[in-house]
Structure formats: structure tokens, C-alpha cells
Amino acid sequence: MSVSRRLRGASRWAAVLVVLTICAPAPAAGQVFLTQQEALELAFPPPMSVERRTAFLSEADLSRADELAGSGSDVDQRIVSYYVGTLENQAQGVAYYDAHRVRTLPEAIMIVVGPEGEVTRVEILKFAEPRDYLASAAWLKQFEGRRLDADVSIGRGVARMTGATLTSRAVTSAVRRVLALHELIKPFGPTP
Amino acid sequence: MTALWAQRWSAACLAVVLSASPAVAQEDAADLTDRLQALEDKVERLGQAVERNAPADDTEGLRTQIEALTRELERLRLGQEVVPVADESKFGLGPAASRVYAVQQGVSIGGYGEMLYQNFASTRQDDLPSGRTDRFDFVRAILYVGYKFDDRFVFNSEIEVEHASTGQTGSVSLEFAYLDFMISDAFNLRAGLVLPPMGFINELHEPPTFLSSERPETERRIIPSTWRENGLGFFGESGPLSYRAFLVTGFDGVGGGGSDADGFSSSGLRGGRQKGSRADADDFALTGRLDYKNPHGVMVGTSAYVGNSGQGNADPFLPGETLGARTFIWEGHAQAQVRGLSLRGLLSVATVDDVPQLNALRGLVGGESIGERLTGGYVEGGYDVLNRSETQVQFIPFVRYERLNTQSEVPAGFSADPASDRTLVTIGADLKPVPNIVFKTDYVLESNDADTGVNRFNISLGYLF
User: Fold this and answer.
1) Closest Cα partner for B121 from B132, B112, B111, B107?
2) Does B295 reach chain A within 8 Å, measured CB to CB?
3) Does B66 touch chain A (CB under 8 A)?
4) A32, B13: Cβ pair inside 8 Å?
């Protein structure tokens, strides 16, 4: 092989690697799939409007939410911001955000709860663990229509994700946590 | 030897790619927990203050503080990459230029830049040699430096290095530098070197915020971006409406005075900019803008400029009289950015009075005349084909159709140069690996009535931070 051909080959490799570097996810943040705003637009597309509200929980509220969520779904935040989507003055759903660690790295998700207290959507916003452990859209879909009951747990009503047990647990715990908070906050009432 | 060096270089690139692992940048959990705890405590104290029936005047202020703190809390919990704050445009400025408004207090730094490779066709429309040399230029590198003294006083500035050097055609310029006195959302004051609030590009010209490698010609020749003048005025927003209005030093249509202005020409108003540099101040102008934005990404608006451009020059046809050269610019614009679709349109008309006098003072004859009337506009559309996929990478093919004529009308005794009546069709695509970095490629088909248009292929790199 001539020097010029080898040089051309190496240069092509370098060009491909530069493109890969550019398109690779930012390492510091983990992979970001959606910003909070983009997720909200998915949950409540136009012409729906979105109102941001915040609930302040007492220690008693926190204990009650913890109890509702069940073991393994610790509720430890007393300040909960949530987003109510409305259309023609009718509440269509409420979006909550939950950030947690999967193994050692963070995940942020949006869980949308409908007017009947059922989960209508789960979206992954950020996932910092290796992509192999990311929950698929099909796996997330099984939460749709679920309410807070014993079936919202791994091995009962929620199928385990093969090879990604920690992710399955983390997302299921987050769904339980959010449904517990939802039951306590009752966000479809008037603005607090 | 050369091949060995190239292989080593490839290996180095590979090492860089492999080292970009997510594990290298874990957050400082302890610090984050402390900050979260401090914020939660503060929010709780404020909440208790409101519940203790604080005086009515204070209640609204406390609610505002609680709202700000809960948003900050949310951003810390979810991560600022999920809840970004710095990339919002404020008061018509670009995302990086708006950075100072987002800081609590003190210094803010932002910036943007763009590098452009242009490959020109070897022949013109009429098949004669174009004579154009391909060019690779670091067009501009900008630093925004702002300082928020307190909630009332904000300083903001843009310093530009153009063409990478101060030799040849390069320069270092102050693109804007002003002080804001913030009174309320609806009414604030601004004084300094300001940007006349016209069109899309003059205030919002950071490369990731528009699609093409080159700025639209209408917004270079008729609205002469980047256009800045010394002045003062007010601005604000209320609900879906926002406005800005300034009194600024007028154009110098003649040029050759103490400022940077060269005077108007057949190619437009660009040479009349005084750029705040020892500007002649015999003539001032008024400029203002009104926009309506709905929450679904649609914006419509209009802006205008009116003022004399004589700057104290004597009228060559009326001894003892001062030249007026009243200049009026109007533009209307509309934009929709919805679900990956990006549509934008702009129409602009300008008129200049006393053109025979300006031509006489500038020594312009025949087809060199300044236009008495200038018209231009464009429509463009792009679509992010990755909009529905689970990635933040954007790939946006786009097309733009633009027409402008900087000599739509010329005075009797002069003729319009057919080369001033131009049509540009730009077809290209933008790749944004992250929202604030863009690689653009496009092909510009340029034609004019003199058949001297030259097509070109552009590749550019743009960033903002």
C-alpha cells in the first residue's frame, strides 16, 4: 500500500471519528432526550395551556405519601412542583418530574397523571447510566392506565426489564412515588 | 513517516472519543444536597411568612420569590441540562446576549462565533468568468460581557473581532454597550450604543438562531445588520406583546465625516451606519418595534425607522440650506416554530429623500445612484427531521426564497443598475449536535437582471455559549 493511500485511509478514519465525537452525547450530563419544556409540549400540546403550581407538604403529609407509595419508594421532598394541562378550562392531566439514581448515576423522568388518577404517559428526560440499561418506550407503555395499587410493582403488574433490573425498579418506584403525591395533593382542585 | 504520523493522529482521535465516557463527570452529590437543603429551607421560611398574613404589598413580592426559588430547586433536582435557563431570549436579544438578565448579580459572559467556507461558481449567469476566489473566513468571534449591579441596573455589551484580525478588512468593534434601568416587565429604560430593533437578524444574529450560512441580503442592505447607533429609549413586554422604542443618531447618508460612515450607495443603506464612533449628531432618528407572540411559537410584528440622514451637510442645490435626506424604513415579519417546523418571512421597504443632492455630494452618476426606494423580502421554511426521535440532535433541511432591489426607484436623470434587482434561492441543511452548535451547508443560486449573479456553495460552523 502506498504512503498516500494509507494517509487517505487514516484521514478518513479521523474524519469519521471527529463526526462521532461531535454527535456523541455530552458526558457530563448523561444523555438528555428531552428538556422539561419539550416534555411538557409532548404531554400538553397546543391548544392546551399549562399552569405551574407548587405544593408544600407538612411532615404528616410526607409520612402519609411515604406510606401510600410503599416500601422502596421513599418520598422525601416536601416541595413538589407540578404542571396542570388544561383545555377550555377542563384539566386534562398533571405532569410531575422525578429525579433519582439508577445505580450510581441520575435519571430524570416525567410522569403524567390523568383526571381519573391513572398514569397516561411516562417519558425519560435524562439518563446517565450506559444506554443498554435505558427503559424502552414499549416497557414504559405498560404504566399507562395504571393507578396506585399493589400491581404497580415489579414482578406483579410490571414486567421486569431483562438485564436492567435497577432501571425497572427505579422507574417503578418513581411512578409509585408520583401517584402517592398525586393522591395527597389532589391537583385537579382550584389553584392553592 | 507521514502515514505513521496520520495513524498516530487517528489513534489520538480514538482515545478522545473513548475517553468521553459518562462516568467522568459525576455531579458533586454532597454539594448538590447542601444547595437543595438550603433552598428548601428558604422556600419554607418564605411560605411561612406568606401564611402569617404578611402585608398585602409584601405578599406579591414573597410569591414571586417563592416561584423563583421553587424553579431553582427544580432545576437543581432535574439538572440544568433538562431545565436550561441561560438560553432564553430576552427583550429581543439572542440567547447568549440575554445571559446577563438571568444572573442573580455580578458578571456574565457569553459569546458566539462563525466560520464560513465559500466556494464560488467559476462562471456568472451570463457564462462569463466569475473571477471570484473561494474563501475560508473566520467571519466573527464575539464576547458578551454583562454586569448586573442589582435588580435595577444592568450593563450589557458585545465586543466583536471580525475576520480574525485588525489587518486587511478585519476589525474589532463594539456592537452594543448599554445600561438598562429595569422598572417593571412593561416599562424599562435603556441608554448607550443600542441596536435599532428592526427585522429578525439585527438583534438576534447568533448563528444557531437562523438557518442559512449567510444572513439574508434584505437584512444587510435595507436593514443594515449589524446596525448600532448611540441613543436611548424604552422597552418592555406585557402578556403576548413586547415593544422597544429608541431615539438614536441618524444615518450619515453622505459619509466622509468624523464617523465610520461611508454614505449610502446603490447597494443600500449599509454605508450610512455611524456605529457609535464619533457619530455626527445633527440628525437624530426614531425607531420602534411591536411584536405579538403566542405561547405556541408563533410571532408576528412590525418595526419602523424615520429620521434625516444629512448630518449637517449643506444642500448643494439650495445654498444656505441644510440637507435633510429623510430616511424611512418599514418592515413586517412573521415566524412560526412549531413541532420541528420553522417558518419565517419578512418584507421591508425603505425610502430616501433628496437623493439627487446625496448623489451630487457623493459623486455618484448614472447607474451608481442611491435608491429613492428600496424593497426586499424573503420567505423560508425548514423542518427538523429528527424532531420526533429520542435525540437532541437536530437536522434541519431548509429553503429560502429572497428578492430585493436596492434601486426600486431612482431620481430622474439617473438609471437603475439591473444588478441591483436580485433574486437569491438558498437550499441547505443545518446539523445541530447540541442546540447551541450548528454546522450549515447550503447552495445559493443568485441571479440579477444584469445576468452577473454568481452561485456559491457554503459550509459554515457556528456556536453560541
Assistant:
1) B132
2) yes
3) yes
4) no
- Are A75 and A60 in contact, with CB atoms under 8 Å apart? no
Q: How many residues can be counted in chain A? A: 192
The amino acid sitting at B285 is A
CA contacts within 13 A on the Cβ side of B359: 21
C-alpha cell at B81: 441540562
Cell triple for residue B54? 404578611
Residue A52: enclosing H or E segment and its boundaries?
Answer: strand A49-56
Judge whether B428 and B441 are in contact, CB under 8 Å: yes
**CB of A50 closer than 8 Å to CB of A59:** no
**Taking CB atoms and an 8 Å limit, are A27 and B47 in contact across chains?**
no
Measured CA to CA, the distance from residue B137 to residue A51 in angstroms comes to 47
Report which residue type is found at B354. Answer: D
Interchain contact B25–A (C-beta under 8 A): yes
Give the H or E element holding residue B218. helix B218-221
Contact of A78 with chain B, judged by CB distance below 8 Å, is answered with yes
Query: In terms of residues, how long is chain B?
Result: 465
pLDDT digits (tens, 9 = 90+) for B326-335: 999 999 999 9
Name the pTM for this structure.
0.65
Position B363 confidence tier, pLDDT thresholds 50, 70, 90: very high
Closest chain A residue to B45, measured at CA: A56
Answer yes or no: do B83 and A36 touch at CB < 8 A.
Answer: yes
Phi, psi of A144 (to 5 degrees): -65, 130
Pairwise CA distance, residues B461 & B182, whole Å:
35
Inter-chain Cβ pairs, chain A and chain B, closer than 8 A: 122
Q: How far is B78 from chain A (nearest CA, A)?
A: 6
What's the complex ipTM? 0.75
A10 has a chain B CB within 8 A of its CB: yes
Residues of chain B with pLDDT > 90, as a percent, come to 66
Alpha helices in B105-217 (DSSP H): none
- Rounded to a whole number of angstroms, the distance from the CA of B91 to the nearest CA of chain A is 20
Closest to B444 measured CA to CA, from B460, B429, B427: B427
Is residue B51 within 8 angstroms of chain A, CB to CB? no
Q: B92-122 pLDDT, tens per residue? A: 777 777 777 766 567 888 899 999 999 999 9
Q: How many CA atoms lie within 13 A of B218 on its CB side?
A: 28
Max Cα–Cα distance, chain B, nearest Å? 83
Judged by CB atoms closer than 8 Å, whether chains meet at B77 and A47 is answered as no
